[in-house]
């Protein structure tokens, strides 16, 4: 536990997290649970659900649901409410990604990532909507720097994440009057995830990337978990429609004009 938040900050809160059987989203679920929340997680694999629920302990529960399958997501949010009551926090972080040059990417490959990331995030937030506590609920989508920075071999992820962020702003507009906040986090490279290991597999690739980051470090999934707590707790009560970047300054570093010797 990071210890930077009061230990009971999320006591009595009920959180539903999509794609939380590994990586960043599992770290968010873990931090929420450590701070007293009841967590309910979904992903495609029963084995991964079982392992994550066992690791989370306490009241944690979960169910298999592919975010592309609206009915399965609806069933899961209903099961979450039946188990834990009205939903205070919903996190939509399931994603699929791989490196592929646009000219070699099939239409189905492009569509697959749009379906998981963008349509999946709509499905999760839309299905959760009737179950959200109002006023007071917080919804969070997980985006990426690819949302606003073009990247080679990432046309599918860039398009999907840009869509997620604009969807997030529209939902913040429509749901704000009911006391529901909607925000997005864009992590930079997060070192302790398999996804990042796949995208920058060699020490040389990692060094090249780190050199573009002003803080000269990859992020950690716990950095994103702490930011998620801020956004989804009372601390973030006046924040909605925001895209919060946690990237060690990579985006400002990448656009800097280098002068001098
Ligand atoms: C080109 C590819 C490909 C690749 C799949 N496809 N992998 N094209 N290069 N490496 C194409 C396939 O050829 C196929 O099109 C289409 O995509 C669907 O592939 P399936 O394998 O049938 O899809 P599915 O079983 O649904 O799996 C989805 C997946 C897979 C995205 C392809 O990798 C997955 O399940 N990923 C989940 C885990 C993950 O990716 N995590 C990373 C999270 S984010 P054709 O036309 O050939 O049939 C992360 C950090 C990113 O890593 C940070 C920035 C966003
Ligand atoms: P990860 O470890 O690959 O986790 C992805 C999670 O989503 C898993 O729990 C996976 O479980 C689940 N999932 C995948 N497809 C799904 C589907 N169709 N339906 C339901 N669940 C699905 O990913 P990560 O690297 O931690 O990334 C998490 C989020 O952060 C993503 O949105 C990613 O784009 C974003 N991000 C990551 C980084 C990074 O450096 N890692 C950087 C920027 C943004 P199953 O396989 O069991 O379904």
Question: What report would you give on this structure?
Answer:
This protein is of the alpha/beta class and 261 residues long. Helix content is 43%, strand content 13%. The protein contains 9 helices and 7 strands. A 7-stranded parallel sheet has the order 3-2-1-4-5-6-7, sandwiched between helices. Helix 5 (155-175) links the parallel strand 5 and strand 6 (181-187). The relative contact order is 0.14. The protein binds hexanoyl-coenzyme A and NADP nicotinamide-adenine-dinucleotide phosphate (NAP). Hexanoyl-coenzyme A binds at residues 95-98, 100, 105-106, 108-109, 112-113, 144, 146, 157, 161, 195-196, 199.
Jot down its keywords.
single chain, 261 residues, alpha/beta, Rossmann fold, seven-stranded parallel sheet, 43% helix, 13% strand, binds hexanoyl-coenzyme A, binds NADP nicotinamide-adenine-dinucleotide phosphate
Task: Give a quick rundown of the structure.
With 261 residues, this protein is α/β, with parallel strands linked by helices. It has helices at 23-34, 46-56, 70-84, 107-128, 155-175, 194-199, 203-210, 221-232, 250-254; strands spanning 14-18, 38-43, 61-64, 89-92, 138-142, 181-187, 243-246.
């Amino acid at each position: 536990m990071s210890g930077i938040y009061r230990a009971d900050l999320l006591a009595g809160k009920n959180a539903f997290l999509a794609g939380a059987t590994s990586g960043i989203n599992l770290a968010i679920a873990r931090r929420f649970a450590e701070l007293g929340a009841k967590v309910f997680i979904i992903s495609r694999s029963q084995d991964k659900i079982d392992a994550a629920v066992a690791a989370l302990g306490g009241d944690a529960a979960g169910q298999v649901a592919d975010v592309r399958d609206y009915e399965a997501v609806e069933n899961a949010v209903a099961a979450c409410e039946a188990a834990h009551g009205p939903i205070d926090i919903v996190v939509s972080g399931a994603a699929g990604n791989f490196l592929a040059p646009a000219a070699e990417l099939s239409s189905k490959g492009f569509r697959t990532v749009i379906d998981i990331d963008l349509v999946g995030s709509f499905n999760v937030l839309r299905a959760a909507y009737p179950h959200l506590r109002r006023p007071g609920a917080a919804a969070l989508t997980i985006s990426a720097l690819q949302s606003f920075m073009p990247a080679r071999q990432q046309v599918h992820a860039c398009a999907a994440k840009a869509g997620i962020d604009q969807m997030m702003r529209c939902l913040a507009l429509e749901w704000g009057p009911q006391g529901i906040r909607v925000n997005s986090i864009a992590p930079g490279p997060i070192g302790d995830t398999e996804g990042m290991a796949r995208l920058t597999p060699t020490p040389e690739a990692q060094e090249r990337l780190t050199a573009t980051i002003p803080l000269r470090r990859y992020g950690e999934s716990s950095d994103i978990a702490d930011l998620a707590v801020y956004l989804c707790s009372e601390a973030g009560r006046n924040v909605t429609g925001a895209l919060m970047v946690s990237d060690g300054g990579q985006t400002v570093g990448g656009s800097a004009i280098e002068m001098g010797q």
